[in-house]
């Protein structure tokens, strides 16, 4: 487990679905196109814990998100 | 040598315009949030970006070669300030406007994570102005601008961009438009 989250800024996200393509194991799409954590037990829907192997794809999603709604952030202890 | 610069200037201008045409259509497709055949959404976003950057590179070649060509009578000032050129100032000025817009759009796109979505989107809208201005410059200023083959190609490009813009303004444009409208109703 790494120490980063994928943060989703819901005021910016428009459900364009690039992130769900790049992170199919972490995110699923709802009917309106918005990303949802694939793990339903997560409490915080805006900060999705990343494994070490997820980080490159998460960084790519953050760079490509058309709404600049994603950021890879260090997890708070 | 001058002949070569002249030929390079014309060819790179035409290639740049072709790439800008493709970039506008691809940009609209990316905005719809839809994948295309086997290409997923993130690939389309990358292709849109790379084609647009390539268009800017060819635009640089276009302007650079004509600056070096004495026959083109292009001065450094004409690259920045529109409508003050020696030769066909109006049509050349449109080229300068298109160049200035292209530089602004490219820079704000590359720095968009630093500038934030507001600035990025506001400037990116200028793409819809850039394309017709660049096309008018090509038709009015280009040596072959009013020749049959060029006008034919230009008409096809106009049809492609026009169709994409009409689609952009239609109700079902966004991939999830239907479910979003239903949930609002
Ligand atoms: S790529 Fe960005 S805008 Fe699209 S669904 Fe993901 S976070 Fe939202």
What brief labels describe this structure?
heterodimer; A: 77 residues; alpha+beta; Alpha-Beta Plaits; three-stranded antiparallel beta sheet; two-stranded antiparallel ribbon; 2 helices; globular; B: 185 residues; mainly alpha; binds iron/sulfur cluster
Number of helices of chain A: 2
Q: What percent of residues of chain B adopt helix (DSSP H or I)? A: over 70%
**DSSP strand tally of chain A:** 5
Total number of strands of chain B: 0
Report the uncertain regions of chain B: none
Shape of chain A: globular
Quick check: average pLDDT of chain A? 87
Q: Helix/strand-derived class of chain B?
A: mainly alpha
Describe this structure in words.
- The complex is a heterodimer of chains A (77) and B (185).
- Chain A contains two helices and five strands, in the order E-H-E-E-E-H-E.
- Chain A is an alpha+beta fold and 77 residues long.
- In chain A, 19% of the residues lie in helices and 26% in strands.
- In chain A, strands 4-1-5 form a three-stranded antiparallel β-sheet.
- In chain A, strand 2 and strand 3 form a beta hairpin.
- The mean pLDDT of chain A is 87.
- The two termini of chain A are 14 Å apart.
- Chain B has one domain.
- In chain B, 77% of the residues lie in helices and 0% in strands.
- The longest helix of chain B is centred in the N-terminal third of the chain and has 31 residues.
- Chain B contains nine helices and no strands.
- By secondary structure, chain B is mainly alpha-helical.
- In chain B, helix 1 packs antiparallel against helix 7 and helix 2 packs across helix 4.
- The termini of chain B are far apart.
- At the A-B interface, helix 1 and helix 2 of A face helix 2 and helix 9 of B.
- Iron/sulfur cluster binds next to helix 1 of chain A.
């Amino acid at each position: 487990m790494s120490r980063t989250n994928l943060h989703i800024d819901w005021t910016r996200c428009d459900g364009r679905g690039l992130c769900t393509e790049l992170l199919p194991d972490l995110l699923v799409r709802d009917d309106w196109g918005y990303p949802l954590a694939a793990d339903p037990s997560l409490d915080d829907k805006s900060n999705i814990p990343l494994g070490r192997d997820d980080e490159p794809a998460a960084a790519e999603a953050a760079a490509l998100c058309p709404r600049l709604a994603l950021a890879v952030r260090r997890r708070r202890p | 040598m001058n002949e070569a610069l002249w030929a390079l200037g014309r060819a790179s201008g035409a290639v740049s315009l072709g790439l800008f045409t493709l970039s506008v259509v691809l940009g609209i497709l990316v905005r719809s949030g839809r994948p295309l055949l086997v290409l997923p959404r993130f690939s389309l976003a990358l292709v849109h970006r790379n084609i647009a950057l390539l268009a800017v590179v060819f635009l640089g070649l276009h302007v650079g070669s004509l600056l070096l060509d004495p026959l083109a009578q292009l001065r450094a000032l004409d690259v920045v300030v529109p409508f003050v050129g020696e030769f066909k100032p109006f049509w050349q000025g449109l080229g300068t406007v298109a160049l200035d817009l292209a530089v602004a759009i490219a820079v704000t796109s590359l720095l968009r994570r630093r500038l934030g979505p507001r600035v990025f989107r506001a400037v990116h809208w200028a793409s819809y102005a850039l394309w017709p201005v660049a096309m008018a410059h090509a038709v009015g200023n280009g040596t072959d601008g009013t020749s049959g083959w060029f006008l034919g190609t230009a008409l096809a490009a106009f049809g492609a961009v026009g169709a994409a813009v009409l689609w952009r303004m239609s109700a079902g444009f966004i991939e999830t438009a239907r479910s979003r409208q239903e949930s609002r109703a």
